[in-house]
Amino acid sequence: MDYPIEGACQCGQVTYQLKAEPKMVLACHCQECQKLSTSPFSVTAIVAQGDIEFQGKLKEWSRMSDSGNRNTAAFCPDCGNRVYHYNPDDQTTLKLKLKPVGFEHDTIFQPVAHVWVSEKLSWVDLPEGVKIFDKQP
Fold first, then answer.
1. Which residues form the CENP-V/GFA domain (predicted)?
2. pLDDT of res. 53
3. Which pick of 12, 26, 93, 100 has the fewest CB atoms within 10 Å?
């Protein structure tokens, strides 16, 4: 894989360059991620803050998570596409909501674990060979 790879929000106002492979990629089945993605789960690539560079204007929104941590979302103010999430009390990593469509090597966004499967939709089948957690590990 040749880095950096590039991505953008839906309208292209926010762009980013991912300079290194994600530390981990998770599929989250919690109800909040179902709302976020309007699908059965969302894919989250966890990357070090220094491994990604953004261009464009972002807006933020925060909520308290079930763990008691604050979860802040950064999104494009024009198209509303969420670009990443982070905990403002720990900004060493960003939890990016990267959509693997359009990348030549989409396998870097293949989840290694499925989390919050206790809230998984009943008709979703989980793949074999990946770690599964009822809640947040």
1. 5-110
2. 92
3. 12
What CATH number does the domain containing 64 carry?
Answer: 2.170.150.70
Q: What percent of the chain has pLDDT over 90?
A: 40
Position 108, amino acid: I
Question: Is residue 127 a part of any domain in this protein?
Answer: no
State how far the alpha carbon of 39 is from the alpha carbons of 20, 28, 119, in Å: 27, 11, 13
* pLDDT of res. 103: 64
Residue 67 in domain: yes
pTM above 0.70, yes or no: yes
Q: Which domain holds residue 28?
A: 5-120
In 58-112, DSSP assigns E strands to 59-64, 70-75, 82-87, 90-96
Number of Cβ within 10 Å of residue 50's Cβ equals: 11
Angle at 30 between CA 133 and CA 69, to 5 degrees: 90
What's the token pair of residue 109? 């966004």
